[in-house]
Amino acid sequence: MRPFTRIRTDLESTPEREPLLRHPKLATFTCRSTTKTPGGAQADATEDQLVDVHITPLPRRQLVVLCLMRCTEPISQGLIQPFINRMLEDLKVTPERTKIGLYAGCITSLFAFCQLCTTFWWGRLSDHIGRKPILLSGLTGLSISIISFGLQTSFVGLVIARCLAGVMNGNVAVVKSVLAELTDDTNKARAFALLPMSGALGTIIGPMIGGYLAQPAEQYPELFGNIVFLKAYPYFLPCFIAGLTNLLAVLLGFFYLEETLESKANKKNKQRQINSDETHGGDSSSSSTDHQSDDQPVDGPPSLRALFTPTVITVLVSFLFLSIQNSSWATLIPLFSYTRVEDGGLGLTMTQIGTALSANGFVAVLVQMVIFPMLQQKFGTLRLFRGVLLFVPLSFAFLPLLRYLTLRETNSHGPSQGSKVALYGLMFILAIKSLTGMGMVCMSLLLNAAAPSKSSFGALNGLGQSCSALARTFGPASAGALFALSINQHHLGGNLIWVVAVIVCLCTCVTSWLIRVESSPIKRK
Question: Using one digit for the tens of pLDDT, what is the confidence trace for 217-248?
Fold first, then answer.
């Protein structure tokens, strides 16, 4: 009997430097085979085999639509970051400026809690009724919620608007499922790198919209100073623009996005072929032959118990810790930047915060388009994931150092010079942190590699996003509360929040070493 042979692909070939949407090409991979004998002994073959593999071209039109859908969420999320603290001040939710962060964290956490309650079920539902209906309904709900957010005049109204966004927003998991179904082992890494790149574009556009269009009657009195509506609702304009981007994604998705769920796609293709046969008068024998592939049974979604394999559990635990540190970072950066220098922050304005976050988005795009494909090809997904995590505690540790330099420069040369140090220093730290965005791409690849079957992509990515939502439920509120506690009580000189953040990041690094996922072998040509 022929022994069982497992082929492990070592992605150590020539680094991939071509654009992500390049035409298909032939690539050479080094494959090492491991042979298991009938007696159970394992022998490693020392031979390396060079295999020519045809790289499948990426479906460009589908990717453009998916990238736009992925881009709209960070636009809707990021646009509130520059002005949320000022908005809460205007609503007079608390008389103490140092407690604004607690309320801002609560708004973020409520959004994530609602997303936690629904994301898995959106993904699970997409495994049954298809990906496209879920994506379109989610984008529509997100559009309604962000527009209504700009019309609120009370804290309760803000909470309701964000909860609606959380309930309707399960799209990230479904987009990842669609991408996994559109790609194979030869182009999956390049395709998944486009998602965080699209998210990075959203982080550029969102803060710019929020920072430059909030309070337009005050910022641009010559243009909007006489518009009473914008004076009454100073944060409506950026929210309305974000809502339009979601509606644009809905329209493009409706007309151009194809269904990828295998059972639904086969049924649709079969009906198209039948209609074509009827139109061209095809006979039954040829029709039977043409439909043979479509008539093959498609496995249904696995049970919930079947999803929780040991490999899936370890990946999800790492995903949870990764999301905790990322959500805490996303909350702390605007809060830390907005807080006055004498209170423990950087004292930046809304426009400066928006500029820094947007500039970081350009760096993130460069990382995803150029650096990630090259490093993933050279080191492999898991090794790269473990490596980039080391930059996160470093980024957190730099923040109190920047505040010290800003305070010293402010006392020595005045607030103007201190503000410059704070702004450029923040941009530098954000650039370092943007390198860790590769970790989210690696996590997506690892999660899909751990899937029991293709029919479980929706549920499994839903579980991953549920872990992310769980982290964003407690992470931002905890980070905001701990930041307020640190600067009010001056624990560890006001640096308690940064010490805790570094510890959490180190825990994330530890969890990455528990993962044991091998990339699927690249089939020989």
Answer: 999 999 998 999 999 999 999 999 999 999 99
Please state, in angstroms and rounded to a whole number, the distance separating the CA atoms of residues 365 and 378. Answer: 20
32 pLDDT tier (thresholds 50, 70, 90): very low
Residues with Cβ within 8 Å of residue 161, at least 6 apart in sequence: 145, 146, 148, 149, 152
Based on the fold, state whether residues 96 and 166 are members of the same structural domain: yes
* Distance separating alpha carbons of residues 118 and 92, to the nearest angstrom: 32
What is the pLDDT at residue 47?
41
| Per-residue model confidence (pLDDT) at position 362 | 79
CA-to-CA separations, 130 to 215, 268, 272, 445, in angstroms, rounded = 41, 11, 17, 21
Residue corresponding to tokens 């989210």: 440
Going edge to edge, which strands form the sheet with 4-10? 4-10, 26-36, 42-54
Band (pLDDT 50/70/90 cuts) for residue 18 is very low
In this structure, is residue 270 part of a structural domain? no
Report CA 251 to chain centroid distance, whole Å: 22
d(CA 354, CA 348): 10
Triad 71, 77, 79: Cα angle to 5°: 95
**Could you tell me if 40 and 169 lie in one domain?**
no
CA distance 196 to 321: 18
Three-class SS of residue 480?
Answer: helix
Tell me the per-residue pLDDT of 82-101, one tens digit each, with 9 for 90 and over: 888 889 988 888 887 767 87
Q: Which DSSP string do the residues of 277-325 spell out, in sequence order? A: HHHHT--HHHHHHHTTTTTS--PPPPPHHHH--HHHHHHHHHHHHHHHH
Spatial separation of the C-alpha atoms in residues 129 and 138, rounded to whole Å = 14
415 with 503, same domain: the answer is yes
DSSP 354-396: HHHHHHHHHHHHHIIIIIHHHHHHHH-HHHHHHHHTTHHHHHH
Whether residue 48 sits in one domain with residue 70: no
DSSP of 121-134:
HHHHHHHHH-HHHH
Domain-embedded: residue 229:
yes
In the prediction, which pLDDT does 52 show? 54
- The domain total for the chain is 2
Same domain? For 201 and 95 the reply is yes
Q: Quickly count: other Cβ atoms within 10 Å of residue 43's Cβ.
A: 11
Q: Provide the CA 167 distance to its chain's centre, in angstroms.
A: 17
* Pairing label, strands 42-54, 26-36: antiparallel
Sign of CA dihedral 182, 448, 373, 525: negative
Q: Are residues 44 and 99 in the same domain?
A: no
CATH number, domain at 501? 1.20.1250.20
In what helix (H) or strand (E) does residue 32 lie, and over which residues does it extend?
Answer: strand 26-36
Alpha-carbon gap, residue 278 to 291, rounded angstroms: 14
Q: What is the distance between the alpha carbons of residues 417 and 415, in angstroms, rounded to a whole number? A: 6
Provide the domain limits for residue 34.
4-54
